[in-house]
Automatic annotation (TrEMBL):
Chief location: membrane
Alphabetic keyword roster: Cell wall biogenesis/degradation, Glycosyltransferase, Membrane, Transferase, Transmembrane, Transmembrane helix
Residues passing through the membrane, by range: 24-43, 55-75
The name this protein goes by in its record: Uncharacterized protein
Length: 237
């Protein structure tokens, strides 16, 4: 019986549908009159003494602007057409041994545009997902073949040996180290205990060392970077 229960229930907001669609109808009628008014300009008798371009150019600019804004407004109505809310039931999820295996792919290419520390934070966040570890596989694809990204992965692996147990032990909700240490710790389980504060300081110190090691090695590898468009393939586990 429990397997047949839905994991979520969708509720259609009837009142919001009526209000939104009524607004769309009234707005569409107003736009139709506006477009009719603009087009009728072409069929009006013009003053023979006035130059055609003198009136046509402003009309064209105003008409094009109104058509563009109308099109943008029309695209914005898609998610208002049928608003819904969902009630989720996490307690109905199957046991860990029945959950399917998932793969998480993270792509990067240029450590200048995508800083290595931020990419590694994404990797660590994915590794720290609240999911059975044996069924979670995280892959990092570096199309640029940067050696600093490879070095960052090795450092992230070392830091993850401390970060992941800390997240699981205290049920940390913010799984990105950068976001966690930059924000509030009010939601942490056991945040008032001295043991938690002691471990948190140790993890934070290791995270600072982790960032500094990547920053220090960056200057040494920038002069010997692999070309992003011409490099051999490299796969490491």
């Amino acid at each position: 019986m429990e397997d047949s229960l839905p994991l979520h229930v969708c509720h259609v907001q009837t009142l919001s549908i009526f209000i939104n669609r009524s607004h769309v109808l009234l707005h569409s009628i107003a736009l139709a009159f506006l477009i009719y008014y603009r087009i009728s300009f072409l069929f009006q008798d013009q003053d023979p003494n006035a130059k055609a371009t003198h009136l046509f150019l402003p009309w064209l600019l105003v008409c094009a602007s109104e058509l563009l804004l109308s099109f943008i407004w029309l695209l914005d109505q898609a998610f208002r057409w049928r608003p819904v809310t969902r009630t989720v039931f996490p307690e109905r999820l199957p046991e860990d041994d029945k959950l399917p295996a998932i793969d998480v792919f993270i792509c990067t290419t240029d450590p200048d545009k995508e800083p290595t520390v931020e990419v590694m934070n994404t990797v660590l966040s994915a590794m720290a997902l609240d999911y059975p570890p044996e069924k979670l596989h995280v892959y990092l694809s570096d199309d640029g073949g940067s050696p600093i990204t490879l070095y960052g992965m090795k450092e992230a692996y070392s830091f993850a040996r401390w970060w992941l147990p800390f997240c699981r032990k205290y049920r940390i909700k913010t799984r990105s180290p950068e976001a966690y240490f930059s924000g509030s710790k009010d939601d942490d389980e056991g945040s008032e205990s001295s043991e938690f504060m002691s471990e948190r300081r140790k993890i934070q110190e290791r995270y600072v060392i982790f960032k500094e090691s990547i920053a220090n090695v960056r200057g040494r590898v920038d002069g010997n970077r692999i070309p992003a468009r011409d490099h051999p393939s490299l796969i490491e586990f």
